[in-house]
Every structure is written in C-alpha cells, then in structure tokens.
Design brief:
Low-confidence stretches: none
Mean pLDDT: 84
Radius of gyration: 19 Å
Shape: elongated
Number of strands: 2
Length: 97
C-alpha cells in the first residue's frame, strides 16, 4: 500500500470513499434515485492483488457495484419491499401465432 496524506485526502480511506462517491454521482446524474445507492470505501482492506507492484496497485483501485435483486423500491411508500416472484411486469407474455 502506498499511503496518501494531503489536505484533500488525509488517508487512503478518504481517497477510497471519494472514488466510490464519484461513481455514485454518475448513477445519480443518470437519474437513479440516490436513496437506492450506498457508498462504501474499502481503502486497503480488501485487495485483489498485491500492492507491491504498480500493476497490483492499479488492480486494487477499483469500484465494485452490487445489485440487490431480493428487494424492489416502492416509490409510493418510499421503502424497499421483497420481490414478488409472481409479479414480473417485464416478462413477455405468450407469443401470438
């Protein structure tokens, strides 16, 4: 790990959180409701490669996006509700012919 310490980022933790927040901002700017987004900075706590090489450090500068398909956001109530497996509005109906 190469520690960072400056006025903008006192540690790798703040840098990691800023990177994650930047990605969240892209989704918000695309129209995704910000209540649906959670941001988490991991700093150097979850590496996928050794930080001993330039390539390894580049691999560890990443953002992971997780989608929760077990709940759906109900805009009327403003809450998350379990997905009703019988209600699939995007599922095409039987084809005619």
């Amino acid at each position: 790990s190469v520690p960072i310490r400056n006025l903008q980022f006192p540690s790798n933790w703040e840098l990691s959180a800023a990177r994650a927040s930047t990605v969240a901002r892209v989704f918000i700017d695309m129209g995704i409701d910000q209540r649906l987004i959670t941001v988490q900075g991991r700093a150097d706590n979850d590496p996928v490669a050794p930080n001993t090489t330039k390539f390894g450090r580049a691999m560890n500068r990443r953002v992971v996006i997780l989608l929760d398909k077990t709940k759906v956001f109900d805009r009327q109530s403003g809450t998350f509700k379990p997905v009703n497996e019988t209600h699939t509005p995007d599922k095409p109906g039987p084809s005619a012919g």
